[in-house]
């Protein structure tokens, strides 16, 4: 069996731990330099994944924006853009979303029921791959490994990040802390309730701290115990 990809979770949070506010417009937490840092991490990834709810709500294009980075990828024999992935159990995805109409290859992981629901809607826009009756992230990573994906970047949202962390499948975590307070319990948080491996007794290894303008970027290794 092929090795599973290295899984990097990336998120921007407010100082009080929110990843958005409760309004319909997306709250921009990062600054320009930090968005550029994220662009670099995308460019270093073979695939970038977001949950179906982020796709439906934020309608992102999920691209490498820098022409230089795309040229460097092409010069290294890679596609200009990483593979774009979304995950849906229900299969309720609109073909008009921007995600399908920018970048290179797109892949949808779903269930048998989700594939039936999607029908022909994404024909010509994305490959639709059912993982069976259930959507297990281990099976998803096995499938990506078999496709030669070495580095996977997961960009949210809450349920997607929670699922990877709860399953013990995240190798690296980048948390960009923006200097603002959302202060609304109705707003989404970085992760939801879950039984995380080791619970609060498990201290993740801190791998780096960097100031990117007014944003603090923290790098953790969730599967490695802290050295104390
Ligand atoms: N600040 C940031 O860095 C950042 C980044 C990304 C997103 N966000 C925010 O996050 C919010 C959306 O988060 P969310 O939790 O509602 O949605 P999400 O994590 O983006 O997507 C959840 C959806 O993923 C699908 N799914 C399938 N299998 C799953 C599994 N095993 N585990 C988890 N999800 C699975 C389901 O889709 P179906 O319903 O189709 O079955 C589920 O509804 C938005 O407000 C967005 O702006 C913030």
UniProtKB/TrEMBL annotation:
<dbReference type="Pfam" id="PF01872">
    <property type="entry name" value="RibD_C"/>
</dbReference>
<dbReference type="InterPro" id="IPR024072">
    <property type="entry name" value="DHFR-like_dom_sf"/>
</dbReference>
<keyword id="KW-0521">NADP</keyword>
<keyword id="KW-0560">Oxidoreductase</keyword>
<dbReference type="InterPro" id="IPR002734">
    <property type="entry name" value="RibDG_C"/>
</dbReference>
<protein>
    <submittedName>
        <fullName>RibD family protein</fullName>
    </submittedName>
</protein>
<feature type="domain" description="Bacterial bifunctional deaminase-reductase C-terminal">
    <location>
        <begin position="5"/>
        <end position="217"/>
    </location>
</feature>
<comment type="pathway">
    <text>Cofactor biosynthesis; riboflavin biosynthesis.</text>
</comment>
<dbReference type="InterPro" id="IPR050765">
    <property type="entry name" value="Riboflavin_Biosynth_HTPR"/>
</dbReference>
């Amino acid at each position: 069996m092929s090795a599973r990809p290295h899984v990097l979770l990336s998120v921007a949070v407010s100082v009080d731990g929110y990843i958005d506010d409760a309004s319909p417009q997306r709250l921009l937490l990062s600054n320009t330099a930090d968005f550029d840092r994220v662009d670099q991490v995308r460019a270093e990834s073979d695939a970038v994944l977001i949950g179906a709810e982020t796709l439906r709500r934020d309608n992102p294009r999920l691209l490498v924006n820098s022409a230089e980075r795309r040229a460097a990828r092409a010069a290294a024999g890679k596609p200009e853009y990483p593979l774009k992935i979304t995950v849906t159990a229900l299969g309720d995805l609109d073909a008009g979303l921007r995600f399908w109409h920018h970048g290179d290859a797109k892949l949808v992981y779903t269930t048998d029921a989700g594939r039936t629901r999607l029908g022909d809607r994404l024909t010509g826009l994305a490959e639709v791959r059912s993982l069976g009756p259930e959507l297990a992230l281990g099976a998803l990573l096995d499938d990506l490994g078999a496709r030669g994906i070495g580095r996977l970047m997961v960009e949210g949202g809450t349920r997607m990040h929670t699922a990877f962390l709860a399953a013990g499948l995240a190798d690296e975590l980048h948390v960009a802390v923006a200097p603002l307070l959302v202060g609304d319990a109705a707003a989404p948080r970085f992760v939801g309730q879950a039984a995380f491996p080791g619970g609060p007794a498990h201290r993740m290894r801190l791998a780096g701290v960097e100031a990117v303008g007014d944003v603090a970027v923290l790098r953790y290794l969730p599967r490695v115990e802290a050295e104390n």
